[in-house]
Amino acid sequence: MCLSDWYFEYEIQVNRPGLLGDIASLLGMLRVNIISINGVDEDRRGMLVHTDNDEAIERFRTIVSTMEHIHVTKFRQPKLRDRLAIRHGHYIPRDADEKNTFRFVRDELGILVDFMAELFKKEGHKLIGIRGMPRVGKTESIVAASVCANKKWIFLSSTMIKQTIRNKLAGDEFSDNNIFILDGIVTRRSEDERHLQLVREMMNMPSIKVVEHPDMFVQHSEYKIEDFDYIIELRHHPDEEITYEIMEKNHMMSESDSFGGFNF
Question: How far apart are CA 35 and CA 5, in angstroms?
Fold first, then answer.
């Protein structure tokens, strides 16, 4: 993140004509460039600005803090949520108690893909869990985010097409630059020791791992939910309850299918 980028957000107290123009003119006089601007809800507006002059930023902050028609709510070097709020026009909801838990609904798949793609672009270890009911768009969002981040995705376990359990990788699949995806229910129910060993190796790699149904994944394992850097919850609608009874039943029916699953 460039140290000369700043996120400025204010709440409109009096929505008079020319208010935005006054703020933009002030930034222009101070030679501070506006990178992007958007409303982040009905009464708040956010700006991403850029300058190489820290003194200009401090002068701007001092002046806008005295303007009676606005109330400054944020002035800081931009976080990922700030950048996404500017792009999409509202903040991603975050759990009040668990700060690493972010909530989305299916209508926000575009924002979710953008959010995960930004996480995927960062190098090094990152463990991401995604909760959600069947057919809500979990796997599709992970794959789309991998494409946006220009990363190769590797399914270690999945039910996207047919139940798939990998027990080995080949060639460049063992790259730290890949996105490793696994279904926590499929892996937890697997009795294939080679698959479980592959998962252990993958978890120790300095790479990005995405686990669908993380709560099921940590059951009867050496991993804890606290090991996850981010938890994403995806629902069809905001009040939908995420439960595992139906999902476990679906997996049991899949296992009893006469065609069986892929195991390679």
Answer: 9
